[in-house]
Amino acid sequence: MTAILSSLSLRDVSFSYGGTSILDRITLDIPQGQFVTLLGASGSGKSTLLRLLAGLAEPREGELRWQNQPIKGPGLDRGVVFQDYSLFPWMSLIDNVALAVAKAKPASSRVQRRDEAIDYLRKVGLDAALAKYPFELSGGMQQRAAIARALALGSPLLLMDEPFGALDPVNRARLQDLVLDIWETALPKKTIVFVTHDVDEALYLGDRVVILGASPARVIADLPVGFVRRRDRQSLYHSADFHALREQIAEALNADTLQLLKAA
After folding, report:
1. Would you kindly state where each structural domain of the chain is located, as residue ranges?
2. Core-most of 38, 91, 199, 255, by most CB within 10 Å?
3. Would residue 154 be called left, alpha or beta, if left means φ above 0 and alpha means ψ between -120 and 50 degrees?
């Protein structure tokens, strides 16, 4: 059997908080350039796992490695997009993104940083809002700015924690397509781990869906998503293969719920 060439590796990763086990022996291998959606019910440990990958917390047991190096803390090699946008409210959009450029390229001049910030904001359709502050923007525009800031770091690994969960369906769909555009056109292609609890979103975006069971979280299914890129929502959502995979995911989640109820 050929060994998996993995850029992101988790080996028997467990995590506890306040004496409660949150993650239980998570093992995953994610090749470079793959788009993985991490699916599970609310409270199943998805965000905790993402925080470990970002280096914002440490596992109780196990090992996390990115590009053959142990993850020991935050780093510019891992960009993070949170659900709450996390922009600095006292800074304009251009200054928020220019700050990320400064971190990625500390030797760059102020003019170079602003020029690059403008370029990233243009990529997400915000070139007309450069001087605006986060409170002046809609939720969708703030999230686009947060994505631009994450891109400005130049990180080869992008970690996204339910970034569109609070958005209306139209803006959610637009930003899904934006992320796919960024992922498909980046050279080299970024590795993305995208947390969601929405099955349709997971299948539309991902090359692969990893499903976490709850209490504590562990991998209960790891499914390839073989739909051809680029995906058309209307034809995808009406295909028999889509519904079969959706049903497979629902069965995995329902079986885990029933198991938890029996153990209660």
Report:
1. 1-77+157-165+177-241, 85-154
2. 38
3. left
The secondary structure of residue 71, as a DSSP letter, is -
> pLDDT value at position 56?
93
Rounded Cα gap, residues 38 and 159, in angstroms: 11
The CA distance from 139 to 226, in Å, is 32
Cα 260 vs. chain centroid, distance in angstroms? 27
Q: What are 149-204's pLDDT values in tens digits?
A: 988 888 899 999 998 887 888 888 988 998 998 898 888 889 999 999 899 999 99
> What integer best gives the mean pLDDT of the chain?
90
Please state, in angstroms and rounded to a whole number, the distance separating the CA atoms of residues 232 and 230: 7
| Residue (of 134, 137, 201) closest to 174 by Cα position | 201
Distance of alpha carbon 218 from alpha carbon 198, whole angstroms: 18
Question: Per CATH, the architecture of 1-77+157-165+177-241 is what?
Answer: 3-Layer(aba) Sandwich (3.40)
C-alpha span between 66 and 151 (Å, rounded): 18
- 115 has pLDDT over 90: yes
The amino acid sitting at 200 is D
Characterise 193 by phi-psi region: left (phi > 0), alpha (psi -120 to 50), beta (else). beta
